């Protein structure tokens, strides 16, 4: 109870802003669901996007810029020095602030492997921030994952996905659990996928050593997301295609991609977009607390992590340990290195994750009636402004 109270008391420190008068943003390239509008406009009425404004409404000229929907990150462990798994209430909010300043207006807090009772306590506490609107939900990445593909998770804390324990975590989140990553090939895995699907929680296949056939079985049982595709799973083989092929080929699966230049070769990202299509990709950060904070020694759950030149690796063993990525960097890399169409990037970074969260009626695109969540980028795709619910987080200069 003390942890919950501390989180609730600190939630007010993340500013939401009050409703304001009408404002018209003009002159920019505006990315809409129907395409990009040159010299477009976005009308803000209080916290929402509007279809019209009074004649007296002030305007702001953003010629030479892009306006895109606010970014939605469904897989994020922290930032700004704050960890969602082990940090204090203020640490969590610092992480939220850090990513918000990089364009992520909607964020799901991801928890790494820990003791079940600790995760129960943590989920219950974080649910307060979801209810207050600072977080969009909770993602459990572990402990129900394969020791063969554990990545930066503590092996001694891993366990089989017992449906009763999975249900215990979901219940602890009090309606705010959005996703559970698990290795469906483990005992109890398929039953746990079915349980999650029945309760409206995303079952994500990841940190898995599953075969192609086992992955197909999990998808048929209700799995809908691939946790950071390619990473922490068997590589594609021509005789044993493994989970990658099963996840890419099935229209029911959205594949997460970490576009930081470390987790994926550009050709792998291109393969995913080519096979799955832009409508089935979700850019994520998988960020840990070093994101937006700098190099140094950190903790990811119980494990020590060294961040050198922006790359996070376990101190012992050297496995990649999440990322220091922010979604504005992922956007810019997708546009300038991967040469993806801007509309496709917006789908992957805003539209698709919003749909996964069941929140596309409110966020994910620049349409009247939706939250006024948007990002302003210059012609080279550097972030220049962020608005969340009608209030500037970073005001364009």
A few lines on this structure:
This protein is an alpha/beta fold and 397 residues long. It folds into 2 domains: 2-68 and 363-394, Urease, subunit C, domain 1 (Roll); 71-356, Metal-dependent hydrolases (TIM Barrel). 28% of the residues lie in helices and 26% in strands.
Description:
The radius of gyration is 20 Å and the shape is globular. The chain has 397 residues and is α/β, with parallel strands linked by helices. The strands form four sheets. Strands 1, 2, 3, 4, 5, 19, 20 and 21 form an eight-stranded mixed sheet that branches. The protein has two domains: 2-68 and 363-394, Roll (Urease, subunit C, domain 1); 71-356, Metal-dependent hydrolases (TIM Barrel), CATH 3.20.20.140. The N and C termini lie far apart (43 Å). 28% of the residues lie in helices and 26% in strands. Helix 4 packs parallel to helix 5 and helix 9 packs antiparallel against helix 10 (342-356). 54% of the residues are buried. Mean pLDDT is 93; it is low at 1-19. Its EC number is 3.5.1.25. Residues 66-393 form the Amidohydrolase-related domain. Keywords: Carbohydrate metabolism, Hydrolase, Metal-binding. This is N-acetylglucosamine-6-phosphate deacetylase. One of its GO terms (molecular function) is N-acetylglucosamine-6-phosphate deacetylase activity.
């Amino acid at each position: 109870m003390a942890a919950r109270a501390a989180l609730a008391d600190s939630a007010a420190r993340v500013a939401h802003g009050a409703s304001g008068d009408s404002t018209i943003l003009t002159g920019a390239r505006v990315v809409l669901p129907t395409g990009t509008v040159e010299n477009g406009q976005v009308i803000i009425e209080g916290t929402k996007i509007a279809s019209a404004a009074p004649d007296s409404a002030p305007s702001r000229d953003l010629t030479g810029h892009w306006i895109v929907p606010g970014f939605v990150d469904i897989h994020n462990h922290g930032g700004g020095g704050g960890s969602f798994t082990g940090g204090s209430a203020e640490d969590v909010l610092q992480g939220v602030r850090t990513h918000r300043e990089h364009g992520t207006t909607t964020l799901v807090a991801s928890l790494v492997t820990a003791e079940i009772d600790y995760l129960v306590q943590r989920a219950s506490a974080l649910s307060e921030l979801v209810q207050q609107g600072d977080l969009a939900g909770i993602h459990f990445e572990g402990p129900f994952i394969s020791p063969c593909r554990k990545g930066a998770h503590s092996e001694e804390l891993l366990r089989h996905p017992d449906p009763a324990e999975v249900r215990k975590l979901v219940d602890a989140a009090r309606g705010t659990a959005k996703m559970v990553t698990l290795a469906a090939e483990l005992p109890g895995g398929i039953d746990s996928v079915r349980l999650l699907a029945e309760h409206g929680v995303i079952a994500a296949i990841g940190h898995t050593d599953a075969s192609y056939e086992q992955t197909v079985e999990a998808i048929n049982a209700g799995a809908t997301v691939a946790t950071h595709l390619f990473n922490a799973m068997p590589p594609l083989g021509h005789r044993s295609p493994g989970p990658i092929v099963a996840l890419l080929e099935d229209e029911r699966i959205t594949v997460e991609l970490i576009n930081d230049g470390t987790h994926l070769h550009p050709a792998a990202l291109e393969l995913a977009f080519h096979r799955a299509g832009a409508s089935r990709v979700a850019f994520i950060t998988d960020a840990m607390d070093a994101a937006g904070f700098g190099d140094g020694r950190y903790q990811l759950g119980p494990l020590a992590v060294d961040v050198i030149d922006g790359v996070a690796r376990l101190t012992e063993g050297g496995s990649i340990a999440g990322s220091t990525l922010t979604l504005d960097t992922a956007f810019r890399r997708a546009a300038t290195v991967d040469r993806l169409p801007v509309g496709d990037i917006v789908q992957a970074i805003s539209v698709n994750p919003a749909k996964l969260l069941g929140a596309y009626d409110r966020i994910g695109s620049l349409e009247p009636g939706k939250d006024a969540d948007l990002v302003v980028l210059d012609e080279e795709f550097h972030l220049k402004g962020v608005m969340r619910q009608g209030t500037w987080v970073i005001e364009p200069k």
